[in-house]
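Researcher: Structure prediction, please.
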Amino acid sequence: MRRRRLIVAALVLAFIGALALAVLVRKAAPPEAARLLPGAQGFVYFNLTPLRRAKLLQQLPPVALDSEYAEFVHETGFEFERDLDEIAFAIHGPSQAPPGSNQRMSVENRYSEVFVGHFDARRASQYLRKLAGSVDVYRNLEIINIPHEGRTVRVCFLGPEMVAISNVDDPAVIRGIVNRYHKLASPFGGPSLLRHYYRRVPFASPAWAILDLGAVLSASGNSSSPQNSSSALVLPGGYQISFPPGTVAVGSIRYLGEVDLKIRAFTTGESEARGVADQMSAFFALVRTVEGNAGGDADVRAVFDRIHIEQDNKAAVLTAEFPPGILKKILTEPPSASLPQAPAQPEKKARKHR
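Model: Predicted structure follows.
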């Protein structure tokens, strides 16, 4: 009898341990919507459900609907503000063109997205078919091809609450999302950049981003730096923050009574991280000075006062905490002072040519 009890107790403990391990693995894994995305130079994720529960979305100013979006809402019954739960973006740079393919290279970023929400797939499909140039069938799912601004936007309803969209030239990109959707969901799946850096995202972050800054900035036009050299982020006022090659930024937002913002720029060395942190510190110090001298809004000044920048080994870290109500104030009221302008570069004398 005692031996049987020990066996039962051991089985119960083993089951509890396996369950706890599964929960920990799932918590450490990226959300399923992000794991379905293809390899890319950047990933952005939003989970709007906790923001709705905290009533943070209600504090944002109302958005006027343009005619095209109003028609979409009328035809499909879907409103992003009300029905969207999760969205995961993949940012594709020019280097994402598949090797050996005939697809043309793009000088701009392209995107793949996975949406999770409450869809009426029948109504949405009917509306999109009106805009489509063609419809393909892949693994018993329809891929709706919509011509838009010289590109093809491909849309596929993966399930009753999930849809994939991509404007990458190669149709294999959205087919890859379909393939991963049909496979058994693995917490260890997903693109390599996402798998490597997602563990740097703080727990319970409803919004986060992982960006290969060199690739994303050069493709988006924010930087004219060639590949394998420093890339520059152009800030308001014309200021630039240079990031050394190989820098990956991980940003996150959490709500813990206050909005907790953290951005970490992971570089390849401590001296590189110190240089990035010094540039960010100098910019925000100048913003605080200008805002203080202009006698701007006290709440806005408090936001800048709560921004802290430090170096942590090979990473430059920016953190900030501020009450959620300040978001509405910043978005709805114009700034009280002009942002500082970058100092003008001295003009070089032109040579005379005969």
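Model: The chain has two domains: 29-97+106-191, 201-342.
Researcher: Thanks, that helps.
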